[in-house]
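User: Show me a protein chain along with its predicted structure.
Assistant: Here is one chain, sequence first, then structure tokens.
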Amino acid sequence: MPPTVQWITSAVLAVLVLGLLVYMAGARETLEVILSMNVLWVVFSLVIYTPGWVLRGVRWQTILRALHARIGLKDSIRLTFIANTVNILVPAKLGELARAFGVKKKYGIPLSKGLSSLFVDRLADLIAVVLVAFLGFWLAAEAIAIPLWVEQLVIASLALALIAALGFFVFLKTNWIERALVKIPFLREKKERVHEVLGAMKGTFGTRSSIGILFISLAMWVLDSASSQAILLSANYQASWGLVAFAVMCGALTKIVPLTPGGIGIYEGTIALILSLGGVPFSVALSVAVVEHALKNVYTALGGIVFLRQMGLNLAELERSHQKPI
């Protein structure tokens, strides 16, 4: 499917999903909640959200350092902003390739090493999101009217996460997973690339820096959920941090498969559903999810556009970069 058609299709899907959610919540009720929000709480949510970007920059810089590549903290933050801006505008994770291209252009770091570092970066995100989601679920379990099948799903997910953690530990200590992967037909031709990516994972998570990377990632997502809770408070409604954290982390997990630009629509629906299970009126829950996501996306996009100019990059150049062989 041509990129333009893909973008239009995903954008239409986002509009349809949002429209359905607003219809379910009631357009008038949703608008009233948004217009009545306390601006000071909204501004405070951005104050809480901002340090997370510094932590993202520190984390990527730490990962690259573990792979014997150096990058300035300011540029790490800028390129992270740019990558997330591209991910908002494009219904695919091309932002990561844009980040690798940017660091290659300025620092001469090979694309393959840049992409390996970003794989580790996203893996750290996934681990932290899952951990914060489980913590939030545990803290909010009594407050959420959870159907039995949802509880069973969460317990099964925790079991799978523990099995995955055990498998990851085995991977760090042995080479049999790498040998198994290169036997897969479509990976056999990319044997060197597989070796480099897995080597990056071992080089990062197999060192002391892995502890710092994990704590940085956890702090990032705790701040992200606290920022979302401030938006809920702006609507003059209170809920436990655990409930908000669980909702926001589940929303973040929906972005793994980019069905819409920036996960718009799917993300809001997930958060609104979980908050409503915790007793938050659906119109309030949806209003909070919409404002929270819009605020974070606008903040990210504005930062990304500013940093694109500062680094002498442009979206067209980044889009062409994903056509180049790695």
